[in-house]
Amino acid sequence: MKKIYDNVSIKVSRTITNSYSTSFSIGIRCLHKSLHNSIYSIYGFVRLSDEIVDSFSGYDQKLMLEKLEKDTFNSINDGISINPVLNSFQEVVNKFDIDHDLIHQFLKSMKMDLEERVYNEKEYELYILGSAEVVGLMCLKVFCEGNNEQYERLKIPAKKLGAAFQKINFLRDFKTDYYDLKRMYFPNMEINNFNIEAKRKIEEDITKDFEEGYIGIKNLPQKARFGTYIAYKYYFRLLKRIKNTSVNGILNNRVRLPNGVKYSIFIVSIVRKVLRLI
Hints:
Layout: H1 2-20, H2 22-29, H3 33-55, H4 61-78, H5 84-96, H6 100-112, E1 117-118, H7 121-144, H8 148-172, H9 174-180, E2 183-184, H10 196-218, H11 222-243, H12 247-252, H13 259-274
Parallel strand pairs: 1-2
Helix pairs in contact: 1-3, 1-5, 2-11, 3-5, 3-6, 3-7, 4-5, 6-7, 7-8, 8-10, 8-11, 10-11, 11-13
């Protein structure tokens, strides 16, 4: 009977993923079917944690995050949780021997979001490590399916790709983060000194991360390569759109990719796959 509950748990994480991220949902569906549930489970956990610090204002967010942290590691140790998201996540952690330090590092970054702050360089790097790079490493553990030599070889590109995604999110969500959540992730940046030059430097940094991350994509196991490539292409196109958006446009609007653009990327990527260009 527990199998029924485990299946329900995975469905909850899948629903969370599909509800919150079109891009990642399509990317996951382009992975080999055997990888789907594990990546849904990781994203479900990450999204649940993120929602606590981003959306649950008016509640005791600090207490909720502390409880989530305690419940997470209890579920990993016990091999079960009455929280469906944690139940599916603990199964992945235990199955693929995901380093608990990655989870601690992720939750440490979530705790940083509980405070209004303008980040300095050290805090910025620490936040990206925990909020994005370690998530890339969790997924890489699943992709490598126990091949530790392959995992070690692809760690740096996986971290770079995760960092690129996160930095694009910072630019895309600049308005909401600054005005609504009172956060400025880019180091030593104030709203009045975010100008064309500052924007260009951030974009160049992201482009460099993408270049290093793409090397890793080409060397991923076949099961994981196409889905990861799709996510990369979506975010790379989003970066292009951001580059073509003015500073005022970034400050006043959330940059998005229309669904038509997303589907065109998907179709072109399928053609490249058929032609064995990926």
